[in-house]
Design goal:
Largest sheet: 3 strands, antiparallel
Strand content: 5-15%
Keywords: DNA-binding, Plasmid, Transcription, Transcription regulation
Helix content: 55-70%
Structural class: mainly alpha
Number of helices: 7
InterPro entries: HTH_MarR-typ, MarR/SlyA-like, WH-like_DNA-bd_sf, WH_DNA-bd_sf
CATH architecture of the domain at 31-148: Orthogonal Bundle
CATH class of the domain at 31-148: Mainly Alpha
Protein name: HTH marR-type domain-containing protein
GO molecular function: DNA binding; DNA-binding transcription factor activity
Mean pLDDT: 83
Low-confidence stretches: 1-23, 179-183
Order of helices and strands: HHHEHHEEHH
Distance between the termini: 27 Å
CATH topology of the domain at 31-148: Arc Repressor Mutant, subunit A
Domain HTH marR-type: 33-165
Length: 183
C-alpha cells in the first residue's frame, strides 16, 4: 500500500520559488528541512556502525541484536509480529530465528491459544546476551552523547518526538507498532 503525502512536486517547486499556491504546510525553508532529514539519516547510519563495532567481539550481527532487543521488551512475540516490527519478510525472520535458536539464544514455543502460531522467547543465554549487549551499547552511547548537554538532548528529543508523531499521522494505520519503540 502506497502512502501518499500531502505534498506534490508542484507544491515543492512552488515553495522553492516562494509561491504560496494555497499549500500552507510547505515549509518556507525546504533546504533546512531536507538537511535535517539527511542529518537524521547520517547520524543513525554512523551510530549503527559504531555500535556494530562495539558488538563485533560478541559475535552478534545487527539483525540478531535487534531481534534480541525487541524480544527483551516483548518476549513471546509471534514470528509474524517480529517480522513486521523489524521490517523483514517472514522468510528472512524465519532464517534469522533458526540461526539464533541454533545458537541457544531464543526458542520457539507453540502458542497456547492458536496451535498454528509459534511464539519466540529469549532463553537464559539470550537474556544474558541482552544484558551484555546493553552494557556495551550503554558505554558507546555515553561516549557518543558526551558532547551533548542535557538541555540540548531534551530539546532534540522533543523535536524528534514531534516529527515521529507527525510521521505516524501521515502513515496512518500502516504505522502499527511504530509508536511502540521507546525513546
Amino acid at each position: 500500500m502506497e502512502t501518499r503525502l500531502p505534498l506534490d512536486a508542484r507544491a515543492i517547486a512552488d515553495s522553492a520559488e516562494g509561491s504560496t499556491s494555497g499549500v500552507s504546510s510547505v515549509p518556507k525553508n525546504l533546504d533546512s528541512n531536507l538537511r535535517f532529514g539527511f542529518l537524521i539519516h547520517d547520524v543513525s547510519r554512523m551510530r549503527r556502525i559504531v555500535v556494530d563495532r562495539a558488538l563485533k567481539p560478541l559475535g552478534i550481527t545487527r539483525s540478531q541484536w535487534w531481534v534480541l532487543a525487541f524480544l527483551s521488551r516483548r518476549d513471546g512475540m509471534t514470528q509474524t509480529a517480529l517480522a513486521a516490527d523489524l521490517d523483514l519478510t517472514k522468510v528472512a525472520i524465519g532464517g534469522l530465528v533458526d540461526r539464533m535458536e541454533g545458537g541457544g539464544f531464543v526458542e520457539r514455543r507453540a502458542d497456547e491459544r492458536d496451535a498454528r502460531a509459534r511464539r519466540i522467547y529469549l532463553t537464559k543465554a539470550g537474556q544474558k546476551l541482552v544484558a551484555t549487549i546493553r552494557e556495551a551499547v550503554d558505554a558507546v552511547e555515553a561516549d557518543i552523547m558526551s558532547v551533548v548537554e542535557d538541555e540540548e538532548l531534551e530539546g532534540a528529543s522533543g523535536v524528534l518526538l514531534k516529527v515521529k508523531t507527525r510521521l505516524i499521522e501521515l502513515i496512518g494505520s500502516d504505522a502499527e507498532g511504530a509508536g511502540d519503540i521507546e525513546m
